[in-house]
Amino acid sequence: MQGAALSVGLLTFTPSVLAWGNVGHQTVAYIASDFVSAKTKSWAQKILGDTSDNYLANVATWADTYKYTSAGSFSEPFHFIDAMDSPPKTCNVDYSRDCGDDNCVVSAIVNYTSLIQESSQSASSKNDSLMFLVHFLGDIHQPLHDENLDVGGNDIDVKFGSSSTNLHHVWDTSSIEQYTGGYAMSDSRDFATQLTTQIKSGNFSSQASSWLTGMSLSSAQTSAMTWASDANKYVCSTVMPDGISSVENKDLSTTYYNGMMPTVKLQLAKAGYRLAAWLNLLATGSTGISSKYEEAR
């Protein structure tokens, strides 16, 4: 796997189907910024050359744009892992079976976790590695980025209100933007604030520490596979529990939407919390967050 060395400022936006969409990725980044330590914040801001409070959110969607450039085309397979399972009967992810010769989101997380720790890497390389990690830890928590069936749901045509779209896009973008009521950076910040509150003192507070179980930089593949497997199980339980026919060509903006949003919120919360812990490990050697919120409950 190769690294990237292109400045964010040189990129132009290319329309695409984005994992979690802009709002989702920015929400994950803002949640992470709510939980990183002060030392980690300074470390990341220095690498990214951004001292604003939006330092993670500002780069959260970079990898989705970069993959459509000639320099970044190599990274396109890094956004997903194609689980060759059989939903809704069976859902599972196997690294040897599913990662593929061109690598996948799991191997990408392993690679860029390693690169950012190497003192021999240039500042530009470390910048790109951090931007990739911010994005890929979001991608891996979207259930259809851990699924091969019908190109992760991209080939399953559905309706969402008056729009014709596909199942993948509903999970990436349509549902989140319907919930937030918009797609501005401020909408992402507001959504992240809601989820951060749920992690600290709400519905997620009793389970958040378990999201970090077994997390280790020295076993990055195992950690990333845990996250992929965790997300993939929702393909069977929530995305299409009654098979493709139950969603194909159906309007998913009401009953289905109401059923999926608790999982969307949960997965975004996990992604942001785990991203914070991963960055804390890289910057300080400790996840730095679980015990603090255990004591606060």
Brief account:
By secondary structure, the protein is mainly α. It is built from 12 helices and 2 strands, in the order H-H-H-H-H-H-H-E-E-H-H-H-H-H. The chain has a two-stranded antiparallel ribbon.
Distance between the termini: 43 Å
Total strands: the figure is 2
Largest sheet: 2 strands, antiparallel
Number of helices: 12
Average pLDDT metric: 91
Tell me the helix content: 40-55%
Which sequence of SSEs, written as H and E, runs from N to C? HHHHHHHEEHHHHH
Strand order of the largest sheet: 1-2
The share of residues in extended strands comes to under 5%
Q: Low-confidence spans: pLDDT under 50, at least 5 residues?
A: 2-17, 291-297
Shape: globular
Q: What structural class do helix, strand and pairing data support? A: mainly alpha
Alpha carbon gyration radius: 18 Å
